[in-house]
Amino acid sequence: MSKLNVYNTLTNKTEEFEPQNSPEVRMYVCGPTVYDDCHVGHARAYVSFDVIRRFLEYEGYRVKYVQNFTDIDDKTINRAKEEAVPFREIAERYTRRYFDVMDAIGVQRADLYPTVSGHVEEVIDHVQGLIEAGMAYQVEGDVYYRVKEFANYGCLSGQDIEEMLEGERVEPSAKKESPLDFALWKRSPEDEPGWESPWGRGRPGWHIECSVMGRTHLGDTIDIHGGGQDLIFPHHENEIAQTEGLTGSQFVKYWLHNGFVTIDDDKMSKSLGNFYTLEELYEQFSPAVIRYFILTRQYRNPIDFSFGRIEEAGRAYTRLKKFFVRLKRAEAKSCGPVKVQSDLPDNSEFREKFLAAMRADFNTARALGEISSWMKQWNETLESWRDRKQINRREQEAVTEARHLLDKFTSKVLGLELVDTSEAGSNNEEDLIELLIELRSQARENGDYERADEIRERLRGLGYELHDSSEGTRWELKNG
RNA sequence: GGAGGCGUAGCCAAGUCCGGUCAGGCAAGGGCCUGCAAAGCCCUCAUACGUCGGUUCAAAUCCGACCGCCUCCUCCA
């Protein structure tokens, strides 16, 4: 396993990645609150961590990947009230939709998807433990974390307790000992979901779930904990306090946070109304194109979203897919004793450069750049073979290697499929298109270009593009 | 106010930790191919790094000051 560098929010530094129990990696990513549809921001987060997970596995780590669903929270409860249905119905609906859109964009399933409602018992135990340790206190059915008891509070976000107390934004509460204290357990009103506990009927606070589920499924110390940058404070800060306040050992070794999606350089958010759900976007762009777009930026940097940018990414992605097809076609050329002293592209060099980019904090932008440079070399080579019917053994081996490399890095590591669009469609459909192409070819042979062009145009109108070449006419689906 | 980050060619974007050879993409122009197209491929395209100083043989990269922008400190990926 080669040296892998990751940027750790905890230290604000790039560090060498060394899991506690290599090659095992315990990874936890904060999942969505399932009360509404996913938007581009979610895609950015989960695609980023999906690639990180994929790359770690490529490097030989055995990753245990856990991602929660927050199913009990003000938002799911309110939504349930609005629709007058049980909260579980809301949670189930949006969990299903989450999977629909994330599966489509190539996010591999986590090993485990725990929910808060499935861990209430563990939450109660954890909170009880904190109370016994003097780190928490009960007030009228609520339980709060006593922030001043945790010396390291602020270590992740760089916040200083004193300064936060001076801040105007911290609202004092009559119940809390200190305005910084946060709820571990909340008393439930009669008409809201609740569980019996030593403090009466209530439900878990927001932050506690990740501490409990992380610990339950991955142990006291997690290797990687991920999430959006907005979660650094207070969510992740509180997770550290809650967990370490009880266990006394380091909760997370590497904190990784993805950057935001902005729209016209503004933060995308519900309050601004400038967001797109993935479902909406999929009507206009293929999920793979959106994934490609996301990967054109290193995951920690903000990425500005616009339809024009997505289209741009789509063009670059199409080029990549066509390159893959061209490699396959070249590979299919027969092998013969051709004596050609061609300089073949350096596959090994490319391989190392790609890996180096990924090892530099999962720099997918750079990795895609490396693919492009190498693709350019191959295109020149393939172009020079255009009129040759045969290629020699050495050349064929190089093409095969190139095809394998591209497939492995693009589909397996980056999660971008390289399907041959000309192979899409049902057999019946293919036969029909072939028939039309044949008719058009006859027209062309007879010099009836008017008719030939009409067929081409009408097929284009139906979403099929024809490409004439010396080897005949090929077709493919548009926007594949 | 506190914390984190950003400012690179028409646009997007790597590189900045470990100073020295201008990744890559998109757009644009030219060419090859083609009945014409489309697609594809090739070539051209930038002596670019917010500003001002400093260190150095050498700075996008290090140091200092300043300007502009974003995020977090409140639910948020």
Structure description:
The protein has a 4-stranded parallel sheet with strand order 4-3-9-10, with helices on both faces. It is 46% helix and 15% strand. The protein is elongated and about 90 Å long. The protein folds into 3 domains: 20-258, Rossmann fold (3-Layer(aba) Sandwich), CATH 3.40.50.620; 327-418, Four Helix Bundle (Hemerythrin (Met), subunit A) (Up-down Bundle); 422-477, no CATH class. Helix 14 packs antiparallel against helix 15. By secondary structure, it is α/β, with parallel strands linked by helices. The chain binds one RNA strand of 77 nucleotides through helix 1, helix 5, strand 9, helix 7 and strand 12.
Layout of SSEs?
Elements: E1 5-8, E2 13-16, E3 24-29, H1 40-58, E4 62-67, H2 74-83, H3 87-104, H4 120-132, E5 136-139, E6 142-145, H5 161-166, E7 183-187, E8 202-204, H6 208-218, E9 222-228, H7 232-247, E10 252-258, E11 261-263, E12 266-267, H8 278-284, H9 287-295, E13 303-305, H10 307-331, E14 334-335, H11 347-359, H12 364-384, E15 390-391, H13 393-413, H14 427-445, H15 449-461, E16 464-469, E17 472-477
Parallel strand pairs: 3-4, 3-9, 9-10, 11-13, 14-15
Antiparallel strand pairs: 1-2, 5-6, 6-7, 7-8, 11-12, 16-17
The chain binds one RNA strand of 77 nucleotides through helix 1, helix 5, strand 9, helix 7 and strand 12.
